[in-house]
Each structure stands twice: as structure tokens, then as C-alpha cells.
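S1.2 Input.
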Amino acid sequence: MRKLYGLVILLIVLSTLSHALAQGEIDPKKVHFYMYGAATCPHCKKMKEEIPKAFGADSLTYYELVNNDENSALFGEIYRLTGISGVPAIGIAYDGKLYAIIEGEFNVSATPEIIKEAQERNGMFLVTGGKVYLIPRNETEGAQTIAKLETLFIEHRSATGTTGTSPTTTSNTETTETTSTALPTTTGTNENKTCGPAFIGLLALLPLLMRRANH
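S1.3 Output.
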């Protein structure tokens, strides 16, 4: 009888652990990407191919900037909030919440780790200019900034209630710098991973994820 009781306890514990592990996993069906891009940008074209290939045909919402005043105005608001000026500018959402915004190409297969890391840090990652920043959700200003960015990416409307204009100011968003390590770059004009003023090739969050794996 004792052996049977011990077996039942063991099964309950294993079942609980299994459920906890399952809960901790990222469901690919809840991942969605929102991309501002340009038809003339080869890096946008590549990401438009890579994302559906990895997460399914319905995993990407694309906003074209060329000859589109509305999207250009919204992108102007994104610039003022984040400093992102190159494309593709990709928002990664999970279950309706934004967990990262990445300027440039990145390894799509790293998306679940990016989301989990952002969840553990209770914030949203901003990858721009070769650096990774964390915008905290548990601080008023950070939460307000994330809410505005979710409006611009997920809801696809102005976060100010007014029509945006071309970028003229730099971002003054306060963020916590997660790492100051420059991400891998490429050389040569045709090898740049973003189109526009931003020119650093991004393998998103690689230093951060490598550091986490070593702990």
C-alpha cells in the first residue's frame, strides 16, 4: 500500500511539473509579427518570406511605407518614440502583447527565446542602432510607451490621436539598457540589414541570449 501511495504522489508531482513546463512554453499560434517596411527594401522582402515560413501564413501583418501617407505618418510616431528610422521595423507580439521591436533583419527562430526573456524581465525589448534596450512594464512611463507602441503596431492607428508628420526630432523615451554590446555587423552597402538611415546588421538579442544560456 505504501509503494502504491508513493507511486501516486510521484505521478502527481510529475504531472504538475509537466503542466508547469507546458505553461512555460511559447505557443507559436499566439505569436504574431507586425512589420513596417518598403517595397524597395530587400531586407523587408527577406523577412516577409522568413516569418511566414517559420510561423505560418497568417503570422505577419505588413504595413507598406512607399506611397502610403497613413503608414508613413504612423512610422513617424514610432521614430519619435524609439529612434527607429530604418526598415524593416518589426514588432513581435505574443497573445496580443508587444514584447519586442526590432530594427532590421533577425534570426526568426530566436523569437520564442526573445519573448520568454522579455516576459521574465517584465518588459519589452527595443533593438535599434546595434544595441538592445529594455522598456519596463512596471514603471509608469515605460508602460505608457509600450501602450503607445502597441497602438501603432497592433492596432495600426495613431497613438496621439493626431496625424503624424515626418520625423524631425530624436527619441526621448527612457529605457533601461540591457546590453551595450554592439550586435554583429556586415560590410558593404548591399549587405546592410536595414534600409534607410540605420545601417547596422542585427542578429537580434544574440549577446543577451548567449549570456542567459551560460547561466
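S1.4 Remarks. The CA atoms of residues 131 and 150 lie 21 Å apart.
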